Amino acid sequence: RAKQRNRGEINYFTREMSVEIQERVMLLQALRQAFDNERLFMVYQPQVSLVTRKAIGLEALIRWRDDDGKFIAPDRFIPLAEHSGLIVNIGEWVMRVACHQQARLARAGYGYLRMAINVSVAQFRHPRFPYMLKRAIEDSGCDPACIELEITESMAMVEADFLLQTLDKLKESGITVAVDDFGTGFSSLSYLQRLKVDRLKIDRAFVNEITDSERGAKIPEMVIQLSHKLGLKVIAEGVEDLAQADVLQNLGCHEAQGYYFGRPMEPSALMDWLAAQKD
Ligand code: C2E
Ligand code: MG
Ligand code: MG
Ligand code: MG
Questions:
Q1: Ligand 4 centroid to 151 CA: how many Å?
Q2: Which residues surround ligand 4, an ion (CB under 5 A)?
Q3: Which of 66, 102, 200, 275 is deepest in the core (most CB within 10 A)?
Q4: Taking every annotated instance into account, which residue ranges of this chain make up the domain EAL (predicted)?
C-alpha cells in the first residue's frame, strides 16, 4: 500500500511539474524566436555622482517586447536563458550592442560615461567568454576602460578560483568589475580579498528601507564603510527619491542609480536626457 501511495505522489508531482515545464518550454521557445527576430533590445539607465548629481555612467538592461507589445521582465526570462544556455548567445549580443552604444556616446561627446553590462555565471563559464568580450570591444572601437562588468555575489563566491583567473586576464584590458545586488547573496566576504573588484553595488532592497528608520540605514552604512576600508567604490541602486539620495551621500556613498535620477531609456531618449542635464 505504501508503494502505491508513493507512486501516486510521483504522478501528482509529475503532473504538476509538467504544466510548469510546459510553460517554461513555451516561453523559452518564444525567447529563442524573439532573439532570432530581433525583438530584444537594450535600454540604458543613468548612474550619477552623488556629489554633482550628474551622469557618470549607464547600466545596459535588456528588454523583450512580445508580438502583442507586452513586456516580459528580464527577471522572468534571464533565468530561463541561463538554464538553457541561450544566455551565451544573448549575452554576447548584449555586450556587442552595449559596446557599440558606448562608442556612439563617445562620438557624441560623452566618452567619459561608463557602460555597465550584466554578466551571468553561465556566460562567464563559457571558455570563449573573454574572446567574445574582447571582440565586442574591438569591433565597436569603444574604450575598454569605460566597460564595467556587473557580476553577482553568488557567482563571486561559487566560482572564486575560476573567476580569479578569468577576471585577472580581462582586467588587463582596463575593464572594471562591480558586484551587483551586494548583500543579498548570503556569501562570505572572503572573496573580496581575492577578486579584484572595483565597486560594490548596494541592492535596492536595502536602499528601499534607508529612510524608514535608523535601523534601515544600518546595512547600507556598513556596506559603504566596508567599501571605503577595502578601497572600493560603492554605488546604490534603486534610489527613488531625494531623501534616499541625501542619506546615501551623507553616509559617504559615491554614486547612485534609480528612478529618481533616470529610468532605463532607449538610445534616443537617453541622448535627450543627457543633453538636458548639461544645463
Ligand atoms: P540588476 O542588474 O540588479 O538591475 C537593476 C534592476 O533594477 C533593473 O531591473 C532596473 O530597471 C531596476 N531599477 C532601477 N532603478 C530602480 C528604482 O528606482 N526602483 C525600482 N523598483 N527598480 C529599479 P530590470 O531591468 O527589470 O532587470 C532585472 C534584472 O535582470 C537585472 O537586475 C539583472 O540581474 C537582469 N538583467 C537585465 N538585463 C540583463 C542583461 O543584459 N544580461 C543579464 N545577464 N542579466 C540582465
Ligand atoms: Mg546590474
Ligand atoms: Mg542590482
Ligand atoms: Mg537585481
A1: 10
A2: 181
A3: 102
A4: 24-278
